[in-house]
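Feature request, filed as a ticket because there's no other form

It would be nice if the structure record came with a short human-readable summary line next to the tokens. Right now we just get the raw output. Example of a typical job, pasted below so the devs can see what we mean:
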Amino acid sequence: MSKHRKNMSGDFKDFAVDDTNIPLVNRSHKSYTNDFLDEEKGGEKHGLIEQGMREKLIIRGNLLKRRRKFVDVQVLMALIGILFMLVENELYLQECITKLSATSIILKSVVSVSTIILLFAVVMYYMTEIKLRLTDNELDDWRLLVTFPNVNYKVFLEILICAIHPLPINVTFPISGPDGRTDHVSSDGVLSILMMLRVYLLGRVAVVHDTLLSGSATRSLSALNGVLIDALFVFKALMASNPGSVLIFIMISILLINSWAMRNCETFYQFERDNTNFSNSMWIVSITFLTVGYGDTYPVSVCGRCVSVATGLMGIGTTALLITVILKKLEQTRAEKYVYSFVRKAQLDKGRKNAAADVIKNWLLLCNLRKHSDVIDRSKIHVHRKLQHAIRTMQDSRKTRESIGESTVGLIEVSKAITDVEHRTEMLQKSVTELKHGLIHLQATTTDLHFKLNNIYRVLMKSNKA
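Raw output as currently delivered:
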């Protein structure tokens, strides 16, 4: 290579590079790297950014899988606890076992073990959620995300709800009957009813297992728009897509769960025990849910009355949802609204034209009557009333047509008009940019032509002098 450099001409000696110490294998790589860094400034930083983004996506994917596993564990333990609680409760109500028997203690111990695992899964779920938010926001300290008191109250409330269950020991408290007699009853009835609050975990399953809602694109879009994808979001989406099925599921669930709760209350905490069968409890819950209240049967215990109040509130809320869905179904679609508006406008235009013709006809007739006689008689009054009626009809038709046009234009039409304006503005800006480039090119061509004409003029002047 040095021998070849010696044979170079003097013009190129200054540009020679001493690369004798560079291995032949690494020369092409080095030249390629230099060319890349010359063409794309900051290429090394760009590569580091891509590598960091890749690692972030991998960590995020692992955290999402971990969160999904913890949610599955939560739902599984909650269902196991509810199942064993129902078995123990039914055995006790059928008087097959007592609260101090070994079978009852074993079944409630299984419920307690499942509750402990459930609480551990809830804590791990929130820790994974915090790590996921730290990864998304590129933060280092978890205390930047845990805000007091909202997050703390939420976690504490969820742990409290999941921790409620019948204890393996028999905890009793005294209640007084209508005759003044005091009796000690078990607290398992109330704890069993409150244990049904764990059904909220079903909404979390729908969030983490739906590929559309748990995808990275959906979470990124929700983060940019400040939308929290949770069970409430899923409920709103289902109410928008399948409102009938959702309402039927809600009503059946309320009927079954509240009837079971009413039966528990009336069996555990009243002395007469007239409403201990499931059919009477379903009847009480049904008439309370529908806000009918015949009064033929009613809850006696305080616990049953609380269940009745909760059922009434649920019935009011479900009725409001049902009315909203019915109104939405009865609302005209866009196509129906356009057809009705078109037909209505045509009818109003026809009525307006007829009214305008009646105005002209009655005005000419009134002028003719006034021309022949100045006395106000019955015929003139009749024609004048017809003229006023025609004028009012014409004005009302015009106002009604304007109101129909305003009601036809909705948010979709406004959005479409804005989109069309933006598209035309972009096209106009593109045309202006092309026109600008054309003017610049024309100016350059004119300048070049000017220089060439000056050169021709100088050549001609030199030839004339010669």
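Something like this underneath would help us a lot:
Residues 1-45 have pLDDT under 50 and may be disordered.
Residues 421-466 form one domain.
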